[in-house]
Each structure stands twice: as C-alpha cells, then as structure tokens.
Amino acid sequence: xxxxxxxxxxxxxxxxxxxxxxxxxxxxxxxxxxxxxxxxxxxxxxxxxxxxxxxxxxxxxxxxxxxxxxxxxxxxxxxxxxxxxxxxxxxxxxxxxxxxxxxxxxxxxxxxxxxxxxxxxxxxxxxxxxxxxxxxxxxxxxxxxxxxxxxxxx
Length: 154
What we know:
Elements: H1 2-13, E1 16-25, E2 29-37, E3 42-44, E4 47-56, H2 65-74, E5 81-90, E6 93-100, E7 103-114, E8 117-124, E9 135-136, E10 139-152
Antiparallel strand pairs: 1-2, 1-10, 3-4, 4-5, 5-6, 6-7, 7-8, 8-10, 9-10
C-alpha cells in the first residue's frame, strides 16, 4: 500500500502543465489546458535539456465540450500527442522541435526557473501543423497560438 501511495504522489508531483492561448477573430480568445504533461527537464550547470516533453491531446480542455471535441479532432484525435523534443536552453532562451498533428517544426522559447519547475513560453502558427481555416459561426482561429508550459526540473 505504501508503495502504491508513493507511486501516485511521485506521478502527480512530476506532471507538467501546458496552456495554449488561442486568439479568435474578429475578437476573443480561449485557453486549452492540461495538467497531465509528461517529462522532466535536466539541469547541468547553467544548461537545461529535455529529451521529450509530451501532452496527450485528449487531456486538453477548454471548458466547452463541443470545442474540446473539435480541438481534439483537429489535432489528430484524443490519443495523439503533442511533443517537444530535444529542447536545450541556457540563459533564459532555448530551442527544440515541436511535433503535433503529424508535423515537426523548430521552436524558440524563453524560460525561467521557478523553484523546482521550469516555466517556458513560445508562439506557434497552427498552419505550420496543418491546421488552417478554422471557423465556426463566423468566428475564426488566428494563425498564432501562445504556449505556456511548466515542467519539473531534476
């Protein structure tokens, strides 16, 4: 029983959070967020690295069920993953490769350490990942999404 409790505590303590701020046109925005990111960031001196940080598409929630369904479909289905691979950073700036919806693109990000966590921010273009012309009842998604991610440092 103690081992099971320790495993549950460790898996929760090592979860990452990911937020996608989606801007709408002509006005408005929404957040798609998950507190079930997986992965760690390693620290070696002033250098930070992460081999793979992931979030399963189905864990992203927007507080509107129909919007969640459409978001999951556009990103390849609920079981698909969004992955940041080979992330490297030093001095508050870094790079990596973002993989989503069957596409891979390099990304540059800024970050800061916050206790035992690393908080990073970067922007992506949905069109780079095959997501174009998203409209519903005359409201469309702009081609810039801001991503905020927080993952544990070890």
